[in-house]
Amino acid sequence: MKKNSAPMAKILKATALVIGCSGIFITGISSAAIEAQVSQSSHDVDAARAMLDSWTGYGPLLNQAKQKLDGVLGADPQNYLALKEMARYEIMAGLLNSRRVQYGAHYYQVGNYVPGTLEQAEATVREAIQIKPDFAEGYVLLGHIQTQQTKLVEAEQSLRQAEKLGTNDPWLEINWGSLNDARGEYLTAIDRWQRVLKSGATNPKALGATYSLLVRCYTRLEDQEKVIALYKDQIKRYPNNAWPRGNLAEYLTSTLDRNDEAIEQATAALKIMNYRFAQKALAWALYRKWAGMVTQGKEAGAEEYFRAALTIDPKLDQVMAYGGSEPAGANLAKALSTKKGVSIDSRAEDGSTALLLATNLNRVKLVQALLDLNANPNLPDRNGWTPLLSAADEGNAEIVSMLLAKGADIRAKKGGWDAVAFAQRKGNSELAAMLKKRAEDAK
């Protein structure tokens, strides 16, 4: 995009003036053409914004938005509103999944992107700001990009500049909350996100992001009733949206083992839209319902739930690895291994076992339950992580001790690093010293 090209409206206006001065009186027609061009550009930018706001990861809306924006910027490369929406498109198109990063003693979540995505989006939004230096919404988006880049100091500067310029963009509070969350300022983050829900904002993407961020924060704080209340508020606000019901179903079964409620919510979600996430939530709620009844000695009536789940999700090795690693996974892992002969060491796609996944997430009680079911503490995933190496990297001394008591190999290495080195890398000198002594004793 050429930064020095004059906006199309200015070019057309200058042409109209030249023609008028030469005695050809078609200035009125030229003005109409100018107004039509400007109106069409504004309409296309609004349409692209609406597409981006309603895009949930599926369907052709993302590419349709890009086509609209390409058309606007082809006619007027300095349309700063279109540039901002193009930066949003670039972020959405380049998002792969999420990852955890550390700030001090805190971990926070950012996106994992196709290489170069955030750099391109930053360049695009900076171009918009260069064209219109008082573009507050541009600084709001820039702050989000910088938070995703883990440039928290720069992100704060951008958001403060947006505040100084003034805007009622709900993303300003959302992005401030994300920055607070990254710094471990959870109550401040919650307060900012709650303001968005109470503000009367109608932007569907902004509201959806706010709910998701609040759910994630309250999940981290283990405030289960607040999580449920947020999902139910979403369901009330968007009764024809399947996702809040599917998400609630997944939370009820995986975290709380409230499987009857989960089955009800997943079934309701699938009546609205038949999609894989809700199918999986239903299947695993049915599996956990079966496992719970088996644990209670009600095997006769339990089998129908198992058969129903099996028709939806028959990959029992994946159910063991993933379902057995979730907070409510102990009964499921035990029932699958003792009643259906599924190996407790079944692997996920990346080679992780339920034990490794539970260790990664610091689920102490579940790790002990899996070890009591004779889970192998030495099986690595495809990247070479063993449960002990992961526990040392997480700095979880309690899980380290559990694993060592069950025969975890203190000599295991990943990329030349042993458990001592991973503990030292995280600055956990006490854990590193304990591991070093155990390694010396093992020689």
From TrEMBL:
Signal peptide: none
Keywords of this entry: ANK repeat, Repeat
Superkingdom per UniProt: Bacteria
SMART domains: ANK (SM00248), TPR (SM00028)
Entry-linked SUPFAM superfamilies: Ankyrin repeat, TPR-like
Gene3D superfamilies in UniProt: Ankyrin repeat-containing domain, Tetratricopeptide repeat domain
ANK repeats, residue ranges: 350-382, 383-415
Designated name of the protein: Ankyrin repeats family protein
Originating species: Collimonas pratensis
